[in-house]
Amino acid sequence: MDELRASKSGPVHLMDELIKALPGKLWITSFTEKGGSVQISGVGLTENDVATFMTNLERSAYYSGVELKVTKQKVQDGLRLQNFDISCRAQNPVMSDADKQGGKP
Q: CB within 8 A of 102, min separation 6: which ones?
């Protein structure tokens, strides 16, 4: 039963952690997860925004092995934007008994 609950809440945690990892000047254009493999595409204002996003994902307990597959600069409306593709693995961190009970001892 615990495994069923964990697999049900996993996608919610992945999306929540993804949102937390986003720097202010970065947008996600595509997100796919299949069999624990995650592919993320998006656009950042600078290379630093993309690097910050990757670092933030690595710090999350729900993502591992974050790897930049492609980065391409494109000019749109006079702005130099960074298109990127990232691959990583979805993790399901082990929860303590207190976490399972909503933090109640």
A: none
Q: Is 82 helix (H, G, I), strand (E, B) or coil?
A: strand
Q: Which helix (H) or strand (E) holds 39?
A: strand 37-44
Dig out the tokens for 74 from the structure. 């494109």
101 DSSP assignment: T
Delineate the domains of the chain, giving CATH numbers in brackets. Answer: 2-91 (3.30.1360.100)
**pTM of the full predicted structure?**
0.78
Look up residue 104 and give its amino acid: K
pLDDT tens, residue by residue, 38-91: 999 999 999 999 999 999 999 999 999 999 999 999 998 888 999 999 999 999
Closest CA to 11 of 59, 85, 62: 62
Residue 33 tokens read as 């997860």
